[in-house]
TrEMBL record:
Record keyword Methyltransferase present: yes
Biological-process GO terms, alphabetical: methylation
Protein name in UniProt: DNA methyltransferase
Protein's organism: Solibacillus kalamii
PANTHER family per the UniProt record, alphabetical: FE-S PROTEIN MATURATION AUXILIARY FACTOR YITW (PTHR42831:SF1)
A Pfam family that the UniProt record links to this protein: FeS_assembly_P
GO MF term (any one): methyltransferase activity
Keyword terms of this UniProt record: Methyltransferase, Transferase
Residues annotated as signal peptide: none
Length: 104
């Protein structure tokens, strides 16, 4: 089942509280979150990537994603899928993130 637009916005809004420790910008504006979904049972599934494959902070970020989404009443459980395809690039970043990091 596809989640409705409002729920997706709520989930992305919660994920904007997860800040990439290296870059100091949230994972949504960095373009690291590829997909969010929520099953009827309340399982939130986040498909995301990281800025680098050997990111030592991956467990920290996954933990923060879980915490952020768990604050939504509809979410009972969180599953984070880290994917490397498509690879992340600076093109994924929002205009806000690029401006904050001085990238043109």
């Amino acid at each position: 089942m596809a989640i409705d637009h409002d729920m997706k916005e709520s989930m992305l809004g919660a994920l904007e509280n997860v800040i990439d420790p290296e870059l100091g910008i949230d994972i949504v504006n960095l373009g690291l979150v590829y997909e969010v979904d929520l099953t009827d049972e309340g399982l939130a599934i986040v498909t995301m990537t990281l800025t680098s494959m050997g990111c030592p902070l991956a467990p920290v970020i996954v933990d923060q994603v879980t915490t952020a989404l768990s604050e939504l009443p509809e979410v009972k459980e969180v599953k984070v899928d880290i994917v490397w395809q498509p690879a992340w690039s600076k093109d994924n970043m929002s205009r806000y993130a690029k401006m904050a990091l001085g990238i043109r």
